[in-house]
From TrEMBL:
GO molecular function: G protein-coupled receptor activity
Source species: Patella caerulea
Subcellular location: Cell membrane
Domain of life: Eukaryota
Protein name per the record: G-protein coupled receptors family 1 profile domain-containing protein
Membrane-topology annotation of the record: Multi-pass membrane protein
Pfam families: 7tm_1 (PF00001)
């Protein structure tokens, strides 16, 4: 807080001009993250869930990102109200950490899934089965929820004179170090496997192109790599600032405090950049997955709710269709979309 404020909340906390200007933007981003990821969730669940095991990981990633949007909205409201309750404080920080752990673990699972699909295409459905995907994602969520409740369960730095919910004051140093190590494991998996995926995809594309002399096959080979690459790249860009700042504070907090800048302000700003990752992921899905793109069109245009559904799977190598029927339905769908 700076010296000036607009009003005093009913809890007795002053609300500054910066808070009043930034909170609506924060809440707007949170609502957008939740809505967009729910569209992805509904599209993947209703349309293409049974066609590709990879969709289980995409669904869980969309669920984690949507829940992060809910937390962003809640944090925006907290900034204005700041109800002083120690259990709420610890649980809120724990849930933020837990949902982000679920997000990065699902990104790692999606990366592993695509790596196996490229390196072992004929054994993929032997290694990755729907039951194994369900069990793995369930373990991820149980682990994330455990991480969420640990601070409220006692793994914190609460003293008898607690009066303000400040992240670096209430969170235990050992808990923060453990959380960073947890994030490092999937991050190492991601940055290790993705370059190998690119190398394998390039070799496959060159081999197929040399045999068939058709560029379309090369483009099809890269379709497994590009969406994951965008998701991984955006995740690293968004969360690198807050990750770096946390490491600096844990390494030498006194030096950071001597800089004169409020630690909570820097953390809030860097964490806000990180939360934008949950906004970019559904946009990537809309651009790369036809079912998600169609669902976005249905939501954006009310008259498109009755558009005939065209079964399509961009990730399946086997596609059975009747060309004349698809052409007619596609033309009819395009005409309805143009009328919207």
């Amino acid at each position: 807080m700076n010296g000036s404020f607009v009003f005093i909340a009913f809890t007795g906390s002053p609300v500054s001009y910066v808070d009043l200007a930034g909170v609506p933007i924060l809440i707007g981003f949170g609502i957008a993250e939740f809505v967009l990821n729910m569209i992805v969730l509904s599209a993947m669940t209703l349309d293409v869930l049974d066609q590709d095991v990879s969709n289980y990981f995409i669904i869980n990633l969309a669920l984690a990102d949507g829940l992060i949007g809910v937390v962003v909205v809640y944090n925006g409201l907290y900034t204005l109200l700041e109800w002083k309750d120690i259990h709420e404080c610890l649980l809120r920080f724990g849930i933020v950490n837990g949902f982000n752990v679920a997000s990065v673990l699902n990104i790692a699972l999606l990366t592993i899934d695509k790596f196996i699909k490229i390196k072992y295409p004929f054994k993929y459905y032997h290694y990755i089965t729907p039951n194994r995907a369900k069990v793995t994602t369930l373990i991820v969520w149980l682990f994330a929820l455990t991480i969420s409740v640990l601070p409220a369960a006692g793994w914190s730095n609460i003293g008898e004179e607690w009066s303000h919910c400040a992240f670096f004051d209430v969170m235990s140093r050992s808990y923060l170090i453990t959380s960073i190590l947890i994030y490092c494991v999937p991050f190492i998996v991601i940055v290790t496997l993705y370059p190998q995926m690119c190398s394998l995809a390039r070799r496959h594309a060159l081999a197929i192109q040399s045999q068939t002399r058709l560029y379309i096959h090369r483009k099809g080979t890269w379709r497994f790599v590009k969406p994951v690459g965008l998701i991984v790249g955006i995740y690293v860009i968004c969360w690198l600032p807050v990750g770096t700042y946390l490491i600096l504070v844990l390494a030498d907090r006194k030096t950071v405090e001597l800089s004169g800048v409020d630690m909570g302000t820097i953390l809030a700003f860097s964490a806000g950049i990180g939360s934008l990752n949950s906004l970019f992921n559904p946009i990537i899905y809309a651009a790369k997955i036809p079912a998600v793109s169609r669902q976005f069109k249905r939501v954006c245009c009310c008259c498109c709710w009755r558009v005939p559904f065209i079964q399509s799977n961009a990730y399946s190598s086997m596609h059975v269709s009747t060309a004349s029927i698809q052409t007619g339905i596609s033309r009819h769908s395009s005409e309805q979309l143009d009328q919207c």
